[in-house]
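Students often ask why we bother encoding 3D structure as a string. The short answer is that it lets us treat folding as translation between two languages. Here is a chain of 175 residues written in the first language.
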Amino acid sequence: MDHDETGCQAPEGPILCINNCGFFGSAATMNMCSKCHREMILKQEQAKLAASSIDNLVNGSGGDICSSNGKEPVISAVTDVTIVSGELKAIPSQSPEVLCSSGSGEAKAKNGPNRCSTCRKRVGLTGFQCRCGDLFCTTHRYSDKHGCPFDYQRAARDAIAKANPVVKAEKLDKI
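And here it is in the second language, the structure alphabet:
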């Protein structure tokens, strides 16, 4: 078939990344390879964050970090913005948990390695997250081994009821 009949055109050839990193780019990533494109997007997000934090500092509308008004996303760390030779650099400083000492007591209690909630054994990446919300080792991963408070029967009943709604036909009038 001729390409005039189908309306399709074959690409002229592989396009190298515009950053000359040696990999191939595509039109979907603005002729960049995936790594360069990801780095560019990350730099743009950091620049937006730095610009918004500078704007908040200049306008004095920074407010309290602990309170969130629902319009802006909560930033996970407070950053100091410094301008070095024309580049904006965001440097993370103290965490908001340190600054918000009057906040809720449900701050992340586990700062160390992942451990089984029953035997405190280190589980690392191989831990099992239970429906009750705790992390367990291979021995205590089953609900009967760790005294799980999650009600599996009620959850199953609710799932079945939600998946199978009651279908009731209207009554027919008798002739």
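Translate back mentally: DSSP finds five helices and six strands in the chain. Keep this in mind for the problem set.
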